[in-house]
Amino acid sequence: MNGFFLLIPFLIIRFGYLSRLNKNALRRAAHFPNMQGNESIAYIVYQLSNVAIVIYLVFLKVIFVLNPLFIVGSFVYIIGLVLCAITIHDFSLPSTIGINTRGIYRYSRNPMYVSYFIIFIGCSILTQSIWLFLVVLLFQIAAHWIILSEERWCMEQFKVEYTDYMKQVRRYI
Fold this sequence. Notes:
Blueprint: H1 7-21, H2 23-29, H3 38-58, H4 68-91, H5 111-127, H6 130-168
């Protein structure tokens, strides 16, 4: 099977399910705050690595051999998809002030990014591609800088409520 097909469930969850739950949430998920300094470079790297993941998967094949790599890759990929669906659901239902603090957001401030990373790691394992794995690592490093800019924006936007939330909930897991 072509590796690109691994992205179809992800895209359905990320865009289809989210837009079905809440069209405003789809716009919120696409919002990137103003970047400062190295964050601008990280944003470019983040977007390029997104494109690279999609394009590179077109040229990869999922290796369907019942071996430990296939089993682990399938498990990681499915866990990532489930986590993404839960995250998308919870993201679509922010509190009245706009901060997502319910559901999975009680445990992670950035579960959406975590789910993407898990999904893409699963894709790397299923295609047995070290190069895809390296692009995914680059994606995650860049995502960290995007997250820092989003957190700064949230602190400016939501003030004490977000600062209190940051004290109670970890950035990732």
